[in-house]
Amino acid sequence: xxxxxxxxxxxxxxxxxxxxxxxxxxxxxxxxxxxxxxxxxxxxxxxxxxxxxxxxxxxxxxxxxxxxxxxxxxxxxxxxxxxxxxxxxxxxxxxxxxxxxxxxxxxxxxxxxxxxxxxxxxxxxxxxxxxxxxxxxxxxxxxxxxxxxxxxxxxxxxxxxxxxxxxxxxxxxxxxxxxxxxxxxxxxxxxxxxxxxxxxxxxxxxxxxxxxxxxxxxxxxxxxxxxxxxxxxxxxxxxxxxxxxxxxxxxxxxxxxxxxxxxxxxxxxxxxxxxxxxxxxxxxxxxxxxxxxxxxxxxxxxxxxxx
Length: 307
Fold this sequence. Notes:
By secondary structure, the chain is mainly alpha-helical. Helices cover 73% and strands 4% of the residues.
């Protein structure tokens, strides 16, 4: 690549939904309502899991932390997206873009790992009920949550540095709704194969490893449940897992499509659509799924909400 074609980038322009100029204000209203629902719904789950005496168990401790993670995860993306929709400008500084990308990746990995921790909690509760209080003591729960948050940090900071140390050619426009690795690599100069490979390897490791742990946990859970003699026992055991399975399906399904599918099948429009799904739809549905399918949460909500 000619040196004259290399651009010193001080800012990027997020194109976002610029292909829908007549719907910017409508989209702003939709995403504002979604963001408020995420804050209120997940905030309410955090409040009841911390204050309600009947919800002081490892399962709800992890749920409260997961809800807090959902708020952090969406707050990295949505406030910036709302500003861009309102002003119809997508300018973001080079440093802000790098911070957004790194924060988004760290929180996304933490979410994957915490979902695996929650599956392990259900495995111990159902497959080893007599040892559950001993294995899942408060110290262990805190250590698992901390591990979920910090495990990906060194790798993802290094990966972010590699991506943003690239040279960029002619354009600084990112055809995406936030600073994500694939659209940034698209406008980079020269051979980006190694950087793209690093992104895919990291995604494969941090997405598939927790997913395999979740899968193994649920295979063992289902095997144990099917051995239970009573139908009511089976139904109760399945009900404690169903909400988690739905959240896992939503999050992993959309995330895997974006990061693990072949490069040839990528398109800007589909990437934006799936990105909206896993950055907004899953966090907004999380409180609804857990509230509607959990009697303890419903009972706790009835105590604090007006009739």
